[in-house]
Amino acid sequence: MAAAVHKLLHPIEHHRSKEENSQNNQSSSAHDRQDSAMDRARDEEKRSLAQWQDLKTPLEPGQIDEHPDRKMVGHSSDVLRQDDFELIKTLGTGTFARVWLVRVKNARNGDESKVFALKILRKVDVIRLKQVEHVRNERNVLAAVAGHPFITTMVASFQDHDSLYMLLDYCPGGEVFSYLRRARRFNEPTSQFYAAEIVLILEFLHEREGVAYRDLKPENILIDSEGHLKLVDFGFAKKVENRETYTLCGTPEYLAPEVIRNTGHGTAVDWWAFGILVYEFLVGQPPFWDQNPMKIYEQIVEGRVRFPSAMSPEARDLISGLCTVDTSKRLGNIKGGAGAVKAHPWFRNIDWDALYHRKVNGPIVPHLRGPADTRNFDEYEPESANREPYTQEMRDKWDDFFHDF
Fold first, then answer.
1. Most CB atoms closer than 10 Å: which of 67, 68, 138, 229?
2. How far apart are CA 11 and CA 19, in angstroms?
3. Model's pTM, two decimal places?
4. CATH architecture of the domain with range 176-356
């Protein structure tokens, strides 16, 4: 009765109240619909991750060249979150990143064994260490090359308030470096097989993407479950095309003379490093070495490679052509580009088309208990809980730089 009287005495207030309730209900309903649409999109994205794991076939070069938004892999996701993944084990750490073995949470039947590598980069650390441009380059190059048979596949990237994420395929075999150290050196057929896969990588990066990788070494090459290579860690990769760049980056034993001299460098630095890598495959150590890095640099600039007597003449000729100080005469950088390297007699037994399409297993096939086997990776300390916060002030200044994620 009191409520009825109140309505009669305050009709406008009652009408306004009804309107506000209606508006609140509409707003709540719209919010629920938005949440529901977001959940459906996330579920659809997670299903597509599982589908890609089932297919995992190399894309043709023309397909890789498509915009990442039109490919099954390499895109930026607006819906994925760290909460969508179960963090299983740390696979590696760096100064501003940690890589985890992960699986999708609440996976459908049959998808529970499908795992990925999730690279997590804290925005605060990326900014503090002045790595913003390197991180952006890495993400964008990986997006552009996603689907190549011998480059780690960035399935998707995403971000949240304080972190950047790159979801990558998992290579359970671990680093080529570990196998090389255990074997001391690779025999010639093994060296030829893996060197040929690297030629295909460099051919694609240089001639289709105009990208210099700039950090080729055994530690940055992983072995997948079928014994094929996967090139990882694109932090130094840069789209240079026909221009020169002057940034000093790389690993001392693998630096090209023009990098040390700071005379400007381009994609030719990767062919020099490739020659060093082939030498290390066959001999067990790089040709230029000293405990003092300055001595290494002096040897590199001089450019005299000393070969063991047991090395085949074809291997010597290939390495000599690649490790030529004059970039205008360096194999891979001369007329014919990667084609001249592929035509070298040392590669005469390579079927390049069969190799690209992974029609044969690699010579080193890791022994695995299952797709989530981590025996080929080291143990790491837990991540520190005391992390510097990513403040609103930092967000206002820097978040636009991370929009590609």
1. 229
2. 12
3. 0.87
4. Orthogonal Bundle (1.10)
